[in-house]
From TrEMBL:
InterPro entries associated with the record: Phytyl_CoA_dOase-like
Upper taxonomic lineage: Eukaryota, Fungi, Dikarya, Ascomycota, Pezizomycotina
Origin: domain of life: Eukaryota
Needed cofactors: Fe cation
Sample GO molecular function, one term: metal ion binding
Protein name, as recorded: PhyH-domain-containing protein
Protein family: Belongs to the PhyH family.
Length: 275
C-alpha cells in the first residue's frame, strides 16, 4: 500500500468549509505498527527532574493516578521527529494552509481504559497567548478511535462562527454546546484528522476495556516564526509536568491556560471529572 500527500481541490475546499478533514491511509500498515511502538516508548519514558519531555497524570474512574499525556517529546525521539517534521505531513498542511508550516507543539493523549474525557472547547484559547496566529493540528490515530473509547467529536463549520467561551473555565458555553450539531470523527489506526484551532471539538471518557492512544501535533505558518521553544518555556513555568509540581505552588493560571476542560485537572481534586 502506498500513501499520497497530494490533495485534490475538493478536499481542500471541504477543509475550508468544515474546518477539518479525515485522510484515510495516511500511514501504511507497517508505519502504523511503528507508530504504536513509538507511542508506547514515549509513554514509558522516565520521569525525573532532568528530562525535558512533559508527562501529565489524571485520576481515572477507579480513583487511580495514571498517565494522561506526554508533551514536548519530538526533539528527543528520532521516529517522531522524522514523522512530525517530515515532508509528508508538512506538505499536506502546506496545501491546506497555503503556507509552509512549522511544528508548534506535540502531545500524545493516552485515553487509557477508564480515563476521562475532554470538555467542549477550541484550541486557540491555549495557543494565541504565545502569538496571535492561527494553527493547524493533526490527530494521528495510534489505535482505533470510537465513541465507546472516547473518540473525537467536532462541530462542522464552527471555525467560521464566534464560538462563545466561558471565562471561568475557558470551555465552550453550555447553551451553545447543547444546540450545536456534534459529529463523531471515528478513526482507524493510522488515519489522520486535520483541524484548525477555532474548530469546536470534544471527546468522552474511555468506557471500553481497551486503551487508546492518539498523537496530536500542532503547527503554525513558518512566516510567523519558530514558536515551539517559546510555547514550552511558558508551559513549563505555568503548567509543569505533574512530577515537577512544587508543594505550595499556585498553578491556577496554568490550569486555566493549559489544563482547561481536560482530565489533567482531576489531580487537584483527587477524582475523575465529569465533562
Amino acid at each position: 500500500m502506498t500513501t499520497s500527500t497530494e490533495l485534490i481541490q475538493d478536499q481542500i475546499q471541504f477543509f475550508a468549509d468544515n474546518g477539518f478533514i479525515v485522510l484515510k491511509n495516511a500511514l501504511t500498515p507497517s508505519e502504523t505498527i511503528k507508530l504504536q511502538e513509538w507511542a508506547q516508548e514515549v509513554h514509558d519514558l522516565p520521569r525525573t527532574s532532568e528530562v525535558p519531555w512533559m508527562p501529565y497524570e489524571e485520576v481515572n474512574a477507579s480513583g487511580k493516578r495514571v498517565l494522561c499525556r506526554t508533551e514536548n517529546f519530538a526533539n528527543y525521539h528520532p521516529g517522531f521527529d522524522n514523522l512530525l517534521l517530515g515532508p509528508r505531513i508538512l506538505h499536506i498542511l502546506e496545501q491546506l494552509a497555503g503556507d509552509p508550516m512549522l511544528l508548534f507543539k506535540e502531545k500524545i493523549n493516552y485515553k487509557l481504559s477508564g480515563s476521562g474525557g475532554f470538555a467542549p472547547h477550541i484550541d486557540s484559547t491555549a495557543y494565541t497567548h504565545i502569538k496571535n496566529v492561527k494553527h493547524l493540528t493533526i490527530l494521528l490515530a495510534v489505535d482505533a478511535a470510537t465513541m465507546t473509547n472516547g473518540g473525537l467529536e467536532v462541530v462542522p463549520g464552527s471555525h467560521k462562527t464566534e464560538v462563545p467561551i466561558n471565562a471561568g473555565d475557558n470551555c465552550i458555553e453550555p447553551a451553545w454546546v447543547k444546540q450545536a450539531n456534534w459529529m463523531p470523527c471515528e478513526l482507524q489506526a493510522g488515519e489522520l484528522l486535520v483541524f484548525g484551532s477555532y474548530l469546536a471539538h470534544r471527546s468522552g471518557a474511555n468506557r471500553s476495556r481497551e486503551d487508546r492512544k492518539a498523537v496530536y501535533a500542532t503547527y503554525n505558518c513558518a512566516r510567523e516564526g519558530d514558536l515551539h521553544e517559546d510555547y514550552y518555556r511558558d508551559r513549563a513555568k505555568e503548567w509543569p509536568a505533574t512530577h515537577m509540581r512544587r508543594a505550595g505552588e499556585d498553578y491556577a493560571a496554568g490550569a486555566i491556560r493549559y489544563g482547561f476542560g481536560s482530565p489533567m485537572l482531576s489531580i487537584a481534586c483527587g477524582k475523575q471529572l465529569e465533562v
